[in-house]
């Protein structure tokens, strides 16, 4: 059984690495591999080979962001593979395909606010309809030569989609202003809750004016207590682990384009475990 797994691994990776090297690493002879290769394969072996090819293509195309569970969901929902997650786990282990590991970073910054708002959201993150509860935050990236790029975004807690975002090389008030201008007409006066931390951009007179102008409801996390901002902090972690940390960027423009493209992917195509491991009918 172990030799068979080694033969299947060589077959799956032979287009990426020399066969002679794969055989040496796996401790099998080339003669035995070629003998196995020219036998008449069973039907299930053909299926495994097809699945392994799909997995390798998907893994490489998405920079290794999917582990066996999300790979299972992807294969079933987008490739109609009808495969069990245990089967995918076994094949990915055989091919040594592992998801990338997320790096976690947390930073807190003390500022003297122009104004503050109460924590109205207060961990009640469930939203029954779009534009009912929004969370916003700012994160930063760097190019290879140390230039900073800041991303401001708004996440809708009902759809879990990024409904507005803006990037710039500074984190001044205009970064947040340009972000919220994109959804100003969609805000429901007296109903839309906008939750933020107590960063200077959100405690400024300019943002307070925006809240009053749109008749939205501003909610703020308590100092050092960013639990309510958890959903968008989670999005930052996803963007960085599945795109930013896997690449290096020599120019600000290249970084901006890649992050914008990933946000589109996140909103429209990204597989999540909430989709379930059950094989679609």
Describe this entry's structure for a reader.
- The relative contact order is 0.13.
- About 40% of the residues lie in helices and about 10% in strands.
- The chain has a 5-stranded mixed sheet, with helices on both faces.
- The chain has helices spanning about 1-15, 20-25, 30-35, 45-60, 70-80, 85-95, 175-180, 205-215, 230-240, 250-270, and strands at about 135-140, 150-155, 160-170, 195, 215-220.
- The protein is an alpha/beta fold and about 280 residues long.
Question: Can you give keywords for this protein?
Answer:
5 strands; 281 residues; 12% strand; 5-stranded mixed beta sheet; Nucleotidyltransferase, domain 5; alpha/beta
CATH class of the largest domain: Alpha Beta
CATH topology of the largest domain: Nucleotidyltransferase, domain 5
Main sheet properties: 5 strands, mixed
Shape: elongated
What is the rounded distance between the termini? Answer: 32 Å
Number of beta-strand segments: 5
- The assigned structural class equals alpha/beta
Please tell me the total number of domains: 2
CATH architecture grouping of the largest domain: 2-Layer Sandwich
Alpha carbon gyration radius: 24 Å
Strand content: 5-15%
Helix content: 40-55%
**Elements, N to C (H/E):** HHHHHHEEEHEHEHH
| CATH superfamily caption of the largest domain | Ribonuclease H-like superfamily/Ribonuclease H
What is the topological layout?
Blueprint: H1 2-13, H2 19-26, H3 30-37, H4 43-61, H5 68-78, H6 85-95, E1 133-142, E2 148-156, E3 161-168, H7 173-181, E4 193-196, H8 205-214, E5 217-220, H9 230-242, H10 252-268
Parallel strand pairs: 1-4, 4-5
Antiparallel strand pairs: 1-2, 2-3
Helix pairs in contact: 1-2, 1-4, 4-6, 5-6
